[in-house]
Structures are given as C-alpha cells and as structure tokens.
Amino acid sequence: MGTAQILFWSLTALALISAIMVLVSKNPVYSVLWLIVVFFAISGHYILLNAQFLAIVNLIVYAGAIMVLFLFVIMLMNLNTETEPQKSIWMKFFGVVAGGLLLSFFISFVISSADLKGKSAQLKEGEIGLIKTLGKALFNDYVIPFEIASILFLSAMVGAVVIGKKD
Amino acid sequence: MNAIITSAVCGVIMMFSSVFVENKKTYRHIAAVLLLLLLAVNVADTYGIRLFHIDTKGMLLFDRFGYFFNSIAIASTLIYVVLTGRDIEKVGTYTAEYFVLIFFVLCGVTILSSYNTLLMLFLGIEILSIPLYILTGADKRNLKSNEAALKYFLMGSFSTGIMLMGITLIYGATGTFDIYVTPKETITGQPAIVYSLLESAGLILMMISIGFKVSAAPFHFWTPDVYDGSPGVFTSFMATIVKAAGFIAFIKLFDARADASGVEANAFTGVDWKMLFAILIVSTLLIGNITAVFQQSVKRMMAYSSIAQAGFMLFALFSLNDVAKEGLLLYAAAYSLASIGIFAIMVKMKDHTFEGYNGLSKTQPVLAATNTIFLLSLAGIPLTAGFFAKYYMLASVMKTSGYLWLVIVGVVFAAVSVYYYFRVIQAMYFKDGEATITEEVSKGFKVGIIVLAGLIILFGILPQSLLQWFYF
C-alpha cells in the first residue's frame, strides 16, 4: 500500500465519518462545522485525482464562503438551540427511499464503469484538472465570455451600490 | 462587436460622469449624446466599419438581423431617454447610475442579438436582467417598488436556474455549446433517442426560462406586479426594449434548430414544437387580453397588454420563416415606440387609473391626440405601424399550412384588445373630468412626442421605409 493509498483511505474514512456526524449532530452549528471537515476531505480527494484547481476552488467557495453564509443564517435565526422540529414518519421514510435510490445509482454507476475499476488515486496522471490547462482554455477559446462576464459583475456592483447606499 | 464594447464603455463613462458632474440635469444630456454615438457606431458596424478586430472563436455571430435589431433598440432607447429623461431624474438620488444600468442593459441586448453559443446567451440574459432588478427597486421609499424588485429578483433567478439546467441538458446531448448543431454531430455510441430526448428536454427548459423573460403565459405571473410596482419610467424600458430583446434571443435559439423542430424530426421524442408554441401563443393571448379588460389602472392594463403583445410576437417563433423575422423586427419597433409614448404620457399623469385620463383632450389636446395614435397602433388599426406589425405576424403563420385556426384566434384577440385600448381613448375624449398632470409639459416634450407619433404613422403607411434598411 503506497502513500497515495493510505491517503485515499484515510480521507475516505474522514469524509464518511464527518458526513455522518453532519446528520447526527443535534446542534446545527456543529453540523456546519462537520460539513467543513467533509469539504476538506473531498478537496483532498480532488488533489489525489490531480485536480488542484477544483480542490482550491472547493475550499475557497464551499468551505470558505458558503459555510460562513450557513453560519450567519443559523446565528441570525437563532437556531443554535437543540430544538429540532418533529418530522413525520412518512417524511423520514421517503427521505430514506430517495437517498437510497441516489446511492444505489451512484454505486451501480461506479461498478459498471470500466474506467474506474480498481482505481483510487490518479496522482500525476492527465492534466485536465491543472490550472495551466484551465487558464489556456479560458484565455483562448473562452476569452470572450470571460471578458464579457466582467460587464455582468460591474453592473451587479453598480446595482449593489444603488440599492444598498443610504439616500 | 462595436455596439457591445461601446455600450459597456458608455456605461463606464456615465459612472465617471456621476463623480465629476454635479448638475443632475446634465446626466440625461450626456446619456443622449452617448446613445447617439452608440447608434452611429452600430450603424457603422452594419456597413462593415469595424472599430475592434476581435476573434470571437465562434462565440458571437454578427449578421444583418442582429445589427438591424441593435439599431432599433438603441434608437428606441434614445427616444426613451429624450422623452422621459426628466422623469428618470425624479425617481431617486442616483440619476447617473440609472443611466449606467440602462447602458449595461443595452450591452446585454446587443449580446442577445449576436450570440452564437448558449454560453453567450446565458451571459446576455444575465447582463440584461441584473440591472433591471435594480431599476425595478429604484424607488426605495415605495414599498410596492421594493416588493416588485424582490419578486422579480427571486423569480428571475429561478428562471435563470431553469435556463442553466436546460443548457446543461443540451450540452449533455450535443457535446457543444453551439446553437447550430446538426444531429449527426452528436456523440456516437449511444442510441440516438437518448440524446434526442435530452436535447428536447433541454430545449423545453430553455423555452420556459426565455418565455419567463418575455412574460409568455403561463410564465407571466411576475409581470403585472413588477410592471405595476416599479417606477413608471423603468416599466416603460422593461416592457419595450428589453422584452423585444428577449424575443430576438428566443427566435435566434429556435431558428437555429428550425429544421429539427419539425414534427417529422421529432417523431420519436414526441415533441411537436409547432403545437407547443401554438399552445403558448393561445394561452398568452387569452390571459393577456382577457385580464387586461378588467383592469382599472392604465399602468396595470399596459402590463397585461404587454403580455398580450408578447403573444403576437410569439407568432414569429411559431412560423420561423423570413416573413416572421422581418415581422418581428417591425413588431419590435412598432410596439416599442408606441409603448414608450404611452408610458411617457402616463408618467406625467397624476392619476394612473382610467378616470385619471377623463377629459385629457380638453386640458392637453396634444398629449391626448398623440396618446390616441399610440393606442391605435397597439390595437393594430390600419395607418399605424401596429397594423403592419400584426399583419406580418399573421401572414407568416398563413405560410405555415394547417394552422389557419391560429390566425383566426389571433384576429379575435386583436379585436378584444381594441376594447381596452379604446377605453383610454373614450376616457380622454368622451368623458368629462379634470385630467391633471403633475407638472407643466415642456415644448420639447410635445415636439418629441409628435415626432414619435409621426414615426408610427410613417411606418404604418410605408413599412418598407423601416424594413428596407434590413436589406442594404
């Protein structure tokens, strides 16, 4: 078992355990904190798959920005007490059915795929996930949408100022 | 490309002018000059004078249709700014920023008239929408304006989500963002039906989301509240230029697949696009016209009438032939000009209900007369631009064999629309009352509105005077 294998299995265990902890925790704040651990573990997996850009973006956007938003919402709505509304048995039942179907779909997909057989990590394989490749695509083929998106952001910024500033 | 870049740069210039220019009144003059410049640049582009030489990698495709629509949109905006610039100043404290947002919307319009990939379609729709959310909520002290902005934002982001889902499905089916796809180019190795189903589902989602943007029933629910709640001047902009741009985006997307949208081509997915559009048209005409009949406020009536007019513009999407394309351009011009005129007069009125217009012909004969011409044009009475616009739309459907009933439905609803447009005329001319306007109407405004009415009559007598520019 090489280093990649050890890393892969420990990251997998971490991701699974923290994902379960997200669901099990009674306190929503703990749930969110466990979710951050899940994102870190998954980012580790991305690095093992040689997709550094995706790993970094996953950390910045999900673990950084989105989680802060989550925490803000929880704190603003004062949900950090351990009061959970009682859900009906049917809701739980259908939740389990829907989740189970999704899980079985993913498992069958992974099992039936020939490419994925017996693989855990793809260190130093391929370059599709590298920032260099992404940058080349972004500034060659997709340079027009990339530049025009800046107009979108500029208009959104002007709009935010117009709406947000005091009269 | 000229218009896209110039409109964005004009927006930035407006932003800086708000820093360096103190006088509020100068902004609209700056905006008008910049719009003239933008129009000149776009016309130059039409005749092959390119300011920028950029390889767009097939992301944008500039053609006569797009250029011509750009010119119509920019010219309408120019008329809009000249006529109602004074009222834009009254909305709030950020006058220059409103013009900035209008320029950015125009940038979105120019992208939508020239997009060639779904990626650019998405960007264009977003650049078009986001400034509009802000303009809707520009009147910050007014609760209705706030409500309208929030509603529009939430519903709009939802429809954007649907559009992205549609783009994803189409990408999954064809492996490319290009709008011109021949079915043979799809990835091989899987049965074609899977891809065909995916693509049809994606296109239906696209139809829903763009149908939302142009407020086609049953995706029209946001329209009355948003048009009613937002400041009148911005309703005018939203209901005319922006809506027409939505239709251009719509027809470009489905025109690219005109061959694939036939009944035969979709035999195994079972999607009959003609029938789907026919249902969309009939429900839009029905809901728009019938609900407009029961309105008490002219502003709200105009909101429903814009739904009804959208139903007529959808005829172009139904037939997808040359007459339809020409007709859509004429319709966009006729509808935009007439609506801009009606809204320009409406924002001057103190009372926006039908009673508020009582006896306008006695106090303001010029406004009443021009308003009548605009209303007649919207109703599609001969000698006004609206007549030929509707004529082209129905003629395009006549070319598609087997759908004569749709033409009859269109004519019936055009007749229904006469009722509520004539209610305003009746109030202005045949009812006694003291129609009051908020401030004295300037001479310039009167001249402007007479010129606008003259344009509508010109296009109504000689529609070729507009359409000939399309060909040379």
From TrEMBL, chain A:
<feature type="transmembrane region" description="Helical">
    <location>
        <begin position="89"/>
        <end position="111"/>
    </location>
</feature>
<keyword id="KW-0874">Quinone</keyword>
<feature type="transmembrane region" description="Helical">
    <location>
        <begin position="6"/>
        <end position="24"/>
    </location>
</feature>
<feature type="transmembrane region" description="Helical">
    <location>
        <begin position="31"/>
        <end position="49"/>
    </location>
</feature>
<keyword id="KW-0812">Transmembrane</keyword>
<comment type="similarity">
    <text>Belongs to the complex I subunit 6 family.</text>
</comment>
<keyword id="KW-1003">Cell membrane</keyword>
<keyword id="KW-0520">NAD</keyword>
<dbReference type="InterPro" id="IPR042106">
    <property type="entry name" value="Nuo/plastoQ_OxRdtase_6_NuoJ"/>
</dbReference>
<comment type="function">
    <text>NDH-1 shuttles electrons from NADH, via FMN and iron-sulfur (Fe-S) centers, to quinones in the respiratory chain. Couples the redox reaction to proton translocation (for every two electrons transferred, four hydrogen ions are translocated across the cytoplasmic membrane), and thus conserves the redox energy in a proton gradient.</text>
</comment>
<dbReference type="InterPro" id="IPR001457">
    <property type="entry name" value="NADH_UbQ/plastoQ_OxRdtase_su6"/>
</dbReference>
<dbReference type="Pfam" id="PF00499">
    <property type="entry name" value="Oxidored_q3"/>
</dbReference>
<keyword id="KW-1133">Transmembrane helix</keyword>
<protein>
    <recommendedName>
        <fullName>NADH-quinone oxidoreductase subunit J</fullName>
        <ecNumber>7.1.1.-</ecNumber>
    </recommendedName>
</protein>
<feature type="transmembrane region" description="Helical">
    <location>
        <begin position="142"/>
        <end position="163"/>
    </location>
</feature>
<keyword id="KW-0472">Membrane</keyword>
<feature type="transmembrane region" description="Helical">
    <location>
        <begin position="55"/>
        <end position="77"/>
    </location>
</feature>
UniProtKB/TrEMBL annotation, chain B:
<keyword id="KW-0520">NAD</keyword>
<feature type="domain" description="NADH:quinone oxidoreductase/Mrp antiporter transmembrane">
    <location>
        <begin position="117"/>
        <end position="411"/>
    </location>
</feature>
<keyword id="KW-0472">Membrane</keyword>
<feature type="transmembrane region" description="Helical">
    <location>
        <begin position="192"/>
        <end position="212"/>
    </location>
</feature>
<feature type="transmembrane region" description="Helical">
    <location>
        <begin position="233"/>
        <end position="253"/>
    </location>
</feature>
<feature type="transmembrane region" description="Helical">
    <location>
        <begin position="368"/>
        <end position="391"/>
    </location>
</feature>
<protein>
    <recommendedName>
        <fullName>NADH-quinone oxidoreductase subunit N</fullName>
        <ecNumber>7.1.1.-</ecNumber>
    </recommendedName>
</protein>
<keyword id="KW-1003">Cell membrane</keyword>
<comment type="subunit">
    <text>NDH-1 is composed of 14 different subunits. Subunits NuoA, H, J, K, L, M, N constitute the membrane sector of the complex.</text>
</comment>
<feature type="transmembrane region" description="Helical">
    <location>
        <begin position="95"/>
        <end position="112"/>
    </location>
</feature>
<dbReference type="InterPro" id="IPR010096">
    <property type="entry name" value="NADH-Q_OxRdtase_suN/2"/>
</dbReference>
<feature type="transmembrane region" description="Helical">
    <location>
        <begin position="150"/>
        <end position="172"/>
    </location>
</feature>
<keyword id="KW-0874">Quinone</keyword>
<feature type="transmembrane region" description="Helical">
    <location>
        <begin position="327"/>
        <end position="347"/>
    </location>
</feature>
<keyword id="KW-0812">Transmembrane</keyword>
<feature type="transmembrane region" description="Helical">
    <location>
        <begin position="273"/>
        <end position="294"/>
    </location>
</feature>
<feature type="transmembrane region" description="Helical">
    <location>
        <begin position="118"/>
        <end position="138"/>
    </location>
</feature>
<feature type="transmembrane region" description="Helical">
    <location>
        <begin position="65"/>
        <end position="83"/>
    </location>
</feature>
<dbReference type="InterPro" id="IPR001750">
    <property type="entry name" value="ND/Mrp_TM"/>
</dbReference>
<keyword id="KW-1278">Translocase</keyword>
<dbReference type="Pfam" id="PF00361">
    <property type="entry name" value="Proton_antipo_M"/>
</dbReference>
<keyword id="KW-1133">Transmembrane helix</keyword>
